[in-house]
């Protein structure tokens, strides 16, 4: 296939390409991530926040209100909220913007390896210092801040939520199958078989979005080996073949064989999975308190409203983590771009972060801080208050979602293999072997 | 190639109907006809049913959608989905953006395609064969190759997140086919026409403006219509290069209906799909004759 | 490529095109400048957005780069990884071939069958053509939404409902979850979408077959079937080659529907090279490896077109 580009043109193109590429990389800018109180005048302008939160959700509503208040005293200021609720699309967008060096003043990120690289390059502001300087650090729940920290304990993201992930269950369906809620994770397979025998889908699972199933993988290792296991995994100090990883793989395989999840879980989306539970077809549903408005208010179908309750992550024999430690994320965090940080951004953040907990808690959501009380909506069931109260009882340890921890290539592979494992298309041994190979291949890159 | 568009009588695209509608037709033939009609009707139903289902679903209530039989007619018709669709998304803006991108890219394709074909076919030059091959290479090059490099280039020159960032690659990747179609057509413009114009003292620019361009109308319609289908619905370039809500085209706007954590309001999404399909559908139905003819003539030529 | 242009993609009746003479200008007078003025702008557009990225991808494929830290030169390691160490790549390659096969059967087979039937239909041909082309105007995002519901098992979607009605309850499955059905399930929408387009092209070619040829064959006692394969099909072979090339390259660059419908899953059961390349670039931020894969996709397309051309042309010559 003769591509007839003259040699000289080819050479020129190559040089141009090389120049374009090299000039793009390694541009950290001259910003200092520890300079949290830059000198200068506050000049009102528009600042942007690239975020991944529901468009009509509590965080955005609260921040819009706060930005309006702030703009009254600072004419010319506005906060441009650019949201991409779909998380995979968001991550793609944010990572490509980072590559293009086009991140706005504020952007959402989890404490991922990618974010760690950005922090290492000095592109994100040190939030530990910022919160201390603003006198707000002590207001935050310890678990909420810990969730945002990198492995080395550094904090570069501000939490805006606090969520508890529960196993919601339908007590009427459990009674029908004559079973109790599980005491240990090991009880799940038998529980599922009994529920199946009673003609009930045991667990509703949104398999399409991958992360819900990945949570299940994290549970066994968290109880057996603590939150360090996943950190060791990504650092190459642990393997899937270790006892904790093996136990997790075998447990998930068992769950699949016991028919725990609906048959087409891998193509079931979020809404359909929740629909299975709220319509009384499925007995158990693992989701966080962000769904309180749907699961603990009269928005819930009256037929199941009285039967719905929840339990927290069961333990295992010989667990190293306390019962009150489970997945308690403070949501995706907000990072502050060090390159665009100026007196205005600081002043706005000082105002907004101070004001936020009150405004946010008024929407009925759990604030990441301890200084406000969540208002319970009028149409709430008793469960709502119970869940809100539960938030004050959680331990400081939190089970980290693995999708925010592993490098993206390994994570993608893990999510794919997990589905196959639960569907019974591969055996635990195969799963472990594949995943350890993927870890090894991707760890150096 | 036997029937160049320029001279082809329009009847060729119309099937030659059997004129001999003989009153006495053997029953076997009639049975065959009936069977044929039924087969085609079935095929068409299978082909079109998903779209019909989509349309009906956009009027269902959410409860009816999750519990009712998928083949049943909606038990309740509601326009609520449409109001939710308009409330959630920014449909008009999406449609406007798709329109800008489609119009911009089509214009670029037509102008660049005609110019290149004119240079290659009418003016001619020593390496025209090589250049022609270079263009034809583009027909088989998959668009994915351009994603990463263009993303990097755009970020360098600040083109990321603009209408142009979508228009350029969409036009460039459609260009080879357009060059090809225009060249095949120009090949059949009689040489005498040009010679006559030359005798009147017209240079290449005037000849292009006064002869070649006006004669190209049919091919232009074909090129624009066929490409519009692809460009209007482009997902991959828009998804890669567009970041802000204000620039989202229809496919991206539709994606917005997948909410946080993957929650989807299906009936409203289907309503949104119906709304966004409408503009192209209208154009399609109005111009469908011209387009089918264009496609067919393009087809028998190339 | 030039020859391909003349006979393959050109699809003109071979022989007629040979009049392209070595002195190609159709104008008696023209200057070099005028050629440049007409040629340079389109060539620039094409060069910047199509040719330059190919060169850049080749270049980038020799590096390891995550977009934010410095690039490191790794030589051919990305290719070594692709061919030797990455099982997902091979799975995706196999899937891409499967996807291609299903799309071709649906698009070309379907197009030929329907076009042939249509030529025998006494009336309403225009209506059928219009309806048949309709899916082509729907965006792939909408198609993905639509088929997600059509394949759904719980709540039961149209496909599974239909199976239940005709008494095939046993065949009901979660089409997009089952590793054995998912590849077909993501290919069908793509095939469905464009079959109308190819049908039109083939139909137009079929009705251009001179009636006398068929009449003559009929008089010789050939059946409809024989007439079709001996007379009509050989006559439309050049168009058939064009259509095959179009359908093949479109199927090989297929991306939207698998990406939106299953994102390659479950496992890698519906991962295509294109979706894998996209994920590698924009999810894993491994731009070097992604470029290597995209270089492979280009080569794959060129090889496929070359093969089609060889196979179909040779038979024509014999």
TrEMBL record, chain A:
PANTHER family (alphabetical): ARABINOSE-BINDING PROTEIN-RELATED (PTHR43649), OSMOPROTECTIVE COMPOUNDS-BINDING PROTEIN GGTB (PTHR43649:SF29)
Database matches in Gene3D superfamilies: Periplasmic binding protein-like II
Family that this chain belongs to: Belongs to the bacterial solute-binding protein 1 family.
Signal peptide location: 1-30
Keywords linked to the UniProt accession: Signal, Transport
InterPro entries reported for this sequence: Bact_solute-bd_prot1, SBP
Name under which the protein is recorded: Extracellular solute-binding protein
